[in-house]
Amino acid sequence: MGFYRSLGGSMGPYGALDRGYGRRRRGPAPHPPSLPPPPSSGPAPIADVFVTSRTDFRAQLRRCQRLLGAGGGSAMGRPTTELRLHGLGLAVPRTINLALQLQAAAHGALWLHASTSSVEEEEEEEEGGAHRGRHNSAIHIRVCREAPCA
Amino acid sequence: MENFRKVRTSEEESPLPFPDLPPDVVEMKVKEGSKIRNLMNFAMAQMELKGRRQIVFSGCGRAVTKTITCVEIMKRKLGGLHQVTKVRYKTLLEVWENQDPLPGGRAQNLTVHKNVPSICILLSRDPLDPNQTGYQPPEPRHGMEPQLGQPSSSCLFFPHRMFRSLLSRRCPQGLELG
């Protein structure tokens, strides 16, 4: 301890010099990390959401609202302008519900552009080794913040 | 609520969300228990034998998937159909009746308004306005099917299915290791 006392009594193992370690700083960092500037051109950010019937509905709704809200497309540095919801089979009614709930929460300021398709699912092989294709219905809803997205 | 029993369910009538439709257009109201075979027999007869140019499929709740299935079957069979899809809520009125008799002897009814997601799809042989929301142009005919290595449009939406599809096409017996 004599060594630390010779340094003024404030630089001991738990003194002023050590106090900085393991403590959370308050206020802005002296040198904030520099981020690359957001791209000014290029395609508008579009987010795809695959709706399942097992995920909690409110969680899916929150995720979509976060993606559509300000800073939703943070990876690109710009907010997402369009959301594409995809639902397959049993998840189709839930996908429609999700899109309509998003539209209602935005007070009708969102445009919904729905389209349908069928997806071929291959089942287990039959005895002869032949494949029997089975189709399942799917829906794709584009949720746009700006007018027509057709 | 355990003493209540649902006695009746009715739908609120709402006009079709497609303007400029002829008054005699056929509307196929798809229900949860409808048979696809019965629906398609009637709808195909209307389109082929009676020569109708437009038909509407509508369904709500758990019948939405069946509605889309009917539309996809019709598009595949007829080809060259223009489509407009609209989604909205439909209000169902459920009447629940109290099982416990009231002192007055009259039944106590409870009416519940329930909003369920619904879909309305218009199929038309004639071209429709491509700028309206929900428009879907006819798909190319069967000779334009994508080859192996070129994913179909549905595979683009569900990439995991594309992987499975390619795997099973290339290796029908499964993966051979060694």
Can you tell me about this structure?
The complex is a heterodimer of chains A (150) and B (178). In chain A, 23% of the residues lie in helices and 25% in strands. Chain A starts with a helix and ends in a 6-residue tail after the last strand. Chain A has 4 helices and 4 strands; from the N terminus they run ααβαβαββ. The model of chain A is unreliable at 1-23 (pLDDT under 50). Chain A has a domain at 43-122 and 134-150: Alba-like domain (Translation Initiation Factor IF3, 2-Layer Sandwich), CATH 3.30.110.20. Chain A is α+β, with helices and mostly antiparallel strands and 150 residues long. Chain A is elongated and about 55 Å long. In chain B, strands 1, 2, 3, 4, 5 and 6 form a 6-stranded mixed beta sheet that branches. In chain B, α1 packs across α2 (64-78). Chain B is elongated, with a radius of gyration of 22 Å. The longest helix of chain B is centred in the middle third of the chain and has 15 residues, at 64-78. In chain B, β2, α1 (36-48) and β3 (54-60) form a beta-alpha-beta unit. The model of chain B is unreliable at 144-152 and 165-178 (pLDDT under 50). Chain B contains 4 helices and 6 strands, in the order ββαβαβββαα. With 178 residues, chain B is an alpha+beta fold. Chains A and B meet through α4, β3 and β4 of A and α2, β4, β5, β6 and α3 of B. Chain A: GO terms for molecular function: nucleic acid binding. Chain A: Belongs to the histone-like Alba family. Chain A: Keywords: Nucleus, tRNA processing.
